[in-house]
Amino acid sequence: MPRLPTPWSKKRGQRSLGNPYAGVAGEVAFSASAFLAGVFGLSLVLISHWAPQQVPAQVSTEALSTNLSSWVIGTVSLAAIVIGATRLGFRLIHLSASDEFRSVIATRAGAIEMMAPGHGGHGGDGESDVAPLPNVPKGRAITESPGEHLAYRLPMVSGDSGLIGPALLALFWNTAWIILLAVVVSGFWIGKPRWILTFLLVPFAFIGKWSFQFSLSQLRQRLGVGATVVEINEHPLQPGGSYDLFVSQAGRLRLKRLVIRLVCEEETFYRQGTDVRVERHEAFSQILCRERDVEVDPQAPWEQQLGLEIPENVMHSFAGTHNAIRWKIVVKGESRPWPSFCRNYPVVVHPPGLPPSRNPR
Amino acid sequence: MCEQGGVYRAGESLKASWRISRVAIEDLQGLEISVLWHTEGKGDEDLHVHHFQRINEQRLREIGIDSEQELQCVLPVTPLSYHGQIVRLAWCVRLRLFLSDGREVLSEHPFYLVSEQYQHPCEASGESPEAESQITKSEPDQSVSTRAKQTRSVLASLGR
What is the pTM of this model? Predict the structure, then answer.
């Protein structure tokens, strides 16, 4: 029995089941229908506004009579036109070009953008002594700040949760709770008590207390742990190279354990349904320093000079659109009385065999 | 390809020759040949074409498909081939044939791009965060020969 063609196709890993053009045909048909429906709806709205006598008799005059309904139908129609046209154009471009051809077009477009003034595509800004390295992060921000002991002070990318989010949550939640409390009190005051709202205030108060305590602990951690300074004598790094590292931990705390590591991390983004997920994997980890029971005093911060050796034949830093390989120095401390902290200091590793970059300091 | 083992050093010149057999020229609408890298693994694919050549139907009839055609380009310094746990970076020469009936046939010939100093592509093995990881070296010849067999099988299926 001959099978009827289906307007969809299934994906099983790298291969597709069914006719590969079936899904495309279905999507094109849907996009074209959305576009045409949008054009029809918008035309009706425009005709009813500019030439009401031209509206067909089949269309209810009430549907387009009010100003609000005209706006609603017009907006929906416009959205349908934009979505339909965009999806249609996108799908037709994909039909007429292979993956490789699209990549070439995107690269050429990027090259034209880089040649435009303001992008510094072909300018002598001190990087001309290094051969261009496609898909290797430049790491300009890493060498922006000079160090006190060594050439560069590495910028920190905190692995801890932020402070602004919990603080805003606590502020807005407790403000809302106070307003609700005022409503309840006013109800009792005028003799019309709102009992449901009164009972709801109790669990709401617990949430408010928790959000306040959480934001306070984040603030205490930020203020109490103190700054971690990591400095390096050279950047970018190369496989097989030896470097000096200076680490300083300020604050008033007693660290139960302090670990400093060199880490190479694989990072990948992928779509799962409508979500974009990220997965990280530590491909390489080297412990540079591990100490127990470290006392840190505001007058005497913990300081240590370390040696850092990048192994030979390791992968260089890489940054693609969905995949990346990142190198970083990780400082992790388990402290008392503050919560534990983990701070990351990204570095860039170049492939071996390149001439060392000129030190701007 | 000019290197038997399929291992090229960064910045080196890549020379390859290609030929299409067992397909009538009337069945071909065009072809694209590219030197590219792409990622494999859990994440969405990144793809970047380093060298691209498109030959349309008219040009194909002019040059013919029976004789060997040359492909030459200078490879970039990065990104180097990499075989990680969740990210793999692979280089290849890809030939895409467009047939008159709308079908496309893809043929890939992978190769390794390695640094100027080291002959082997790097491969990281995951260890516990508290322990030092080991960087091992893979044997490129076996993998490349396996993929080359797949390429030959694709070409063979094209001929049927």
Answer: 0.69
